[in-house]
Structures are given as structure tokens and as C-alpha cells.
């Protein structure tokens, strides 16, 4: 309601400017400082003290597994879930100001974070892990700064590990608030420490130390490869890396699809959250005979999208995370424009790091060498007889995160779903989202190691299995 929003708005202003530092079991230095920036308008909203090498050493030395019965850990994580829900207003204001999230995205993100806490707490009680690995480093991305950050930590803690949590450098304010609530619920400081700072410095140090028993990572495929290499050099040979990484995700719209529905689902899949979802649609294949009419309809739906302040309820699409991200995406679009392949781009507000949703013509997924993490949709057409070739090319990308299909041919749903090598298939709907507990999420190949997050097997990699090992 308007009253509720006004209250939230007031709270947002009360909360800033903010100062955060690492939450470590020992002294924390305030030597190195960087600003926190609101991507929607460029305003500085806070001050972040990043961890020095001495802070990192203090955290590593203090880190301790959470050695209490599983039922006690579960009760504390469930209490944290309740605290998260009570803190909804603060989380929404932080998510909107620090990460540029629209209100709809904020609501979905808090829901997912709370679901992760409750699901892993209950799942741990059922599976009763008796041998935690030790200390887990959890490294998270900025695009789900609350949900993914919390999910990784909750899984490691539920299984009795100690955690060193390294949030993305763009979103430490959100992470610090989450960790404070977990501590308030009863997680000991030495079992959960927050270490803030840049990936190549702090992240690298926390993934190349023999005191760390395993790493849970979500972020780009390139960073996952770097971490795997560092772990191989410095950590135990059997130390697990649980990685959830990028994707070049495709959707096929055939000539039997319902065009209006498909155009709306394509728009949401490619442009919601400014395309900053690992699951987002990057490469659309439209059957040749419907392509001209379908693309006109799609352009019309793109024009309806409202870009602006993420805090306004009517806003569909907010900014991209920062100036560096905007430059990478803008350069990609400019190159396509210079080559005559830019079919459409929506106008953007003049302030902040916005990128107008863009439609770019390509021949096929093989033209995309890397994930462009923003509101850019590449579109190719295909002939009815070439469907198998299209699927082979999609599989040939090496990634395998999400795939979408719009068709009214039932047998095609079955055959195509069986042929694509991806973690999550979406049929006649948008390609967004997963539901913790009932729709586990995760990719194959270059997109991740498994097991799927929010699924019944996820916790298995966070503890060793003494019975199996002794067989
Ligand atoms: P990123 O790889 O740049 O950074 C992710 C994290 O890794 C950050 O905390 C960063 O500080 C840290 N990091 C960077 N270099 C490091 C190093 N050398 N050692 C240790 N840590 C290091 O990714 P990003 O830009 O924050 O996030 C976007 C990416 O995440 C996209 O590729 C997206 O597809 C992917 N993602 C995947 C999933 C999934 O579930 N599969 C979910 C969300 C995001």
C-alpha cells in the first residue's frame, strides 16, 4: 500500500549513509575504505572498510566449525529466518539502493533467502550430517546479494561447518545486515565471519589456504576456473568446490507458439532484473515463418517496459550494477550497431548506470563467445527442418544452465526437453526462477558442478560420509 511504501521510503533515508566493515572474531582494521554507490543515481550511500591481509589472517585463525547438535543449529537458522522476515523493510531498502533491485525483485529475493534458511535447516535435521568438512569459504555474486549469499552460508552452517563469507565487492551492506541477523539468532562469531573486499585480494586469499576445507562459489565461470586452480595448488586434493556459474541460455519459439504469451515471456526472461540473472535468456531462436510478425510484437512489448528508479512500484527495469558493467554491455551493443545487427534499443534515463534493453541479430548461439550479463537479447531464426541442428548448437556452447521452449506440440516438449543438456527447462512460460525445495536450480558443464541449490542433495557436498569412505 502507499502508506507502507511511504514508511519504507522514510526508513530508506534513515538508514543512509551506512558504514560497514568485516565481522571477524578479533580486531578489524579500518585502513582501506571504498564508497558504496547507488547504481540508480550515482549517489554515495555509504562507506565500506575492506579487509587487510592482517584481518584475513585473524579470521582464518579464529574460524571454527559449529560443533553443536544438528537440532540446535537448525533451531538457530529457523530463528534467523524469522528475523529476516521481520527485517523486510530494511532489506528492501538495502537491495534497492545498493543493488538497484526493483521492489518486485526485492520481494522475491527475500522470500528465497528465507526459504533457503528454512529448507537447509530442516533438511539437515533429516539427513543428520555427522562429519562436517571444517571451514567453508562461501563466495557470492552481487546479482542475488541476499538470497545466494544466505543460501550458501545456511547450507555450510546447517551441516556443522564454520564459514568465512566473502560477499561481492558491490554489495557488502546487504551481506553485513544478513550476517548481523544470523549472529543475533545465535550463530557464534567464530562459526560465521564476514570478510569484505575485492575478489582477487580477499577472495583469492580465502580460497588458497590449507585451513579451508571446501569452497562454495557462485559467480562467473572464469572466476570458478581461477578458484579451482588456486584450490588445487594450496588445498587438500579432495577439498570440494561447489560452483554455480554462468550460462548462455537459449529459448526456442516455434510456429505453433501463442505469440502474445511468448513475446511477454521472452521479454521477462531477457530483460527482467536488467538481464542480470544467470538464468536469463540470451539467445532466442524463432521459427523462420513467424519471425517477422513475432519480432514486431516483441519490440512492442519491449516498448512497454518502464525503466527508472527501482524504488517506484511501477518500474519494470532498474539499472545495471555499476559503471564497469554498463561499459561492457554498451560496448557489446555498439559493436552490433556498427555491424548493422542492432534491431532495437529502448531509451534510458540520463542518470545512473542504466542500459536500454536491446535486440541484436545473430546467426546462432555459436556467435556468442561469452555471457553478456545485461539486458541484451540475441535473436536468430531457424527453418523447421533444422530443429535438431539448433539443439546440437545449443548443447555445443558448453554451458548448460536454463532452456526455454514455446510450442503447442506435446511430443516436441518431450523430445526437445530430453535432448537439451541443461539443468532447468522451462516450457510455455518465462525462463525465470526456481522454488527452493520443489524446483532445485543448477547447471551442467561450464554452468556448474552441481548438486542443485534448493534440492535434496545439496547438503551432501558440505560434509564427508564416513560410512561410505570406510567401505
Ligand atoms: P564474479 O565471478 O566476477 O564474482 C563473483 C564473486 O567472486 C565475487 O564475490 C568476487 O569478489 C569473487 N572473486 C572474483 N575474483 C576472485 C578470485 N580470484 N578468487 C576468489 N574470489 C574471486 O561474478 P559476478 O559478476 O559477481 O556475478 C555474475 C556472474 O555470476 C554471472 O556470470 C552469473 O551468470 C553468475 N551467477 C550464477 C548463478 C548460478 O546459480 N549458476 C547465480 C547467480 C550468478
Automatic annotation (TrEMBL):
Tree of life domain: Bacteria
Annotated Aldehyde dehydrogenase domain residues: 30-462
Active site: 244, 278
Physiological role: Oxidizes proline to glutamate for use as a carbon and nitrogen source.
Similarity annotation: In the N-terminal section; belongs to the proline dehydrogenase family. In the C-terminal section; belongs to the aldehyde dehydrogenase family.
Name of the protein in question: Bifunctional protein PutA
Species of the source: Roseibium limicola
Gene name linked to the record: putA
